[in-house]
Amino acid sequence: MADRVLRVCALYPDLLNIYADRGNLLVLERRCAWRGIGFALTRVGVGDDLDPEAHDLFYLGGGQDRDQRLCAADLQEGVGDRLHEAAARGAVILGVCGGYQLLGHAYALGDEEIPGIGLLDVTTVREDGPRLIGNIAIDVDLPGRPDPGTLAGFENHGGRTRLGPSAQAFGRVLSGHGNDGRSGLEGARSGRVIGTYLHGPLLPKNTWFADWLIETALDDGRPLAPLDDRLEDAAHDTALRAVRR
């Protein structure tokens, strides 16, 4: 039995799964397995209990507006409070696209407002205008890393996300739209809670970020063993070239 186990909770995987979110989870599992690190995945759906102490990393993917409504209602029934407890003890929480919006205060669609859980000081509004679609690259500066890194992905969102006074952007846009197409900022971060619009999926294109998530979530002071990432680095370079085109 492995002496290190990464415990991952996928929230609402049957609803928030339209942006290759299973690929993100698979990358985490494989990169753990190649290092002899155990991997325990728990799927929590609408109506299920959530133990905030039982997981090191929580993942929320992207979904359609109707699916976000279902998840938002469930989050308001206590699951959101459990995520606040998990964040307070240092668990990693990653929300991608719709999951990012649910980590904020609210997502306004005309006269309707989908409530979030306020783990990130952001608010999203559906405004008139085109969807923000295309390849995107951002620079990010993460705790524990000596140098900034570049993430490449794909964005496709109609909402414009605004950062509140206590919010910190996840990254700065090198190419693409980001949170609102104007600010030059992408995503948001508060401690180990991260929200981003990058998908496509995110982690296969940026395995260095997957490793940061694993090491940060394990939080045992032990660095990850290096891997032969020639193929992964090539995938990252290809994604960046797609952005430049």
From TrEMBL:
PROSITE patterns: GATASE_COBBQ (PS51274). Transmembrane segments: none annotated. InterPro entries: Class_I_gatase-like (IPR029062), CobQ_GATase1 (IPR033949), GATase_3 (IPR011698), Lipid_II_synth_GatD (IPR043702). Residues 7-206 form the CobB/CobQ-like glutamine amidotransferase domain. PANTHER family: DETHIOBIOTIN SYNTHETASE, LIPID II ISOGLUTAMINYL SYNTHASE (GLUTAMINE-HYDROLYZING) SUBUNIT GATD. CDD domains: GATase1_CobQ. This is Unannotated protein. GO terms for biological process: cell wall organization; cobalamin biosynthetic process. Keywords: Glutamine amidotransferase. One of its GO terms (molecular function) is glutaminase activity. It comes from freshwater metagenome. Gene3D superfamilies: 3.40.50.880.
